[in-house]
From TrEMBL:
Protein name: N-acetylglucosaminyldiphosphoundecaprenol N-acetyl-beta-D-mannosaminyltransferase
Enzyme class: transferase
Pathway membership: Cell wall biogenesis; teichoic acid biosynthesis
Keywords, comma-separated and alphabetical: Cell wall biogenesis/degradation, Glycosyltransferase, Teichoic acid biosynthesis, Transferase
GO molecular function, one term: N-acetylglucosaminyldiphosphoundecaprenol N-acetyl-beta-D-mannosaminyltransferase activity
Family from the record: Belongs to the glycosyltransferase 26 family. TagA/TarA subfamily.
EC number: 2.4.1.187
Keyword Glycosyltransferase: yes
Reaction(s) catalysed (UniProt annotation): UDP-N-acetyl-alpha-D-mannosamine + N-acetyl-alpha-D-glucosaminyl-di-trans,octa-cis-undecaprenyl diphosphate = N-acetyl-beta-D-mannosaminyl-(1->4)-N-acetyl-alpha-D-glucosaminyl di-trans,octa-cis-undecaprenyl diphosphate + UDP + H(+)
Species of origin: Acididesulfobacillus acetoxydans
Amino acid sequence: MRVDILGIGVDALSMAECAARIAGAVEAHSRLRVVTANPEMICAAGKDPDLRRVINSAGLVTADGVGVVWAAARLGTPVPERVTGIDLLEALFPLASRRHWRIFLLGARPGVAAEAARRVGESCSGIVWEASHGYFEPAEETDVIKRIGDFKPDLLLAGLGAPRQEFWLAEHEGLATVSIGVGGSFDTLAG
Ligand code: UDP
């Protein structure tokens, strides 16, 4: 079930249910685009119909922040709990490790995504990684898209900042089985 928060449909699912939905999509090779909708994004979407469309057309929209959980409760349509991008990743990596998922990290400053992959790989071996920084010039974008396409990721994580990553993933939906906009998560994972 989706609950409406200022024109954005947010899935009323727990953290475990969101992770299970994503894992199920990867395993079934069923395309899924995920948006973790935080309060800033929901407010911005109120003024930007294109952003609203991009979020509402995602297959899974999570309540990213206590403010969203609070708003849902206030509107009388509660959602179970906050589901952030980093929490989702931490739930998914152990499974990805066992199932040898191919994960492409796109975003953050040069070296950060690769370091995030290295760090996660220390405890979750078996994941096949590829990474690219998020400061490519428009002229370099074709190369980035080709690298992702050639890699054929099960999971494409875009940490380009919101809402750019949401627009980017919607525009390049065919590149991966599952894609998630994860904001500054690579910086966190790289430590
Ligand atoms: N970023 C990027 N390319 C850009 C601008 C930003 O890859 O052109 C990255 C930035 O390095 C950071 C992430 O996008 O890793 C955005 O993180 P932030 O926490 O500012 O964004 P939010 O989580 O609020 O979306």
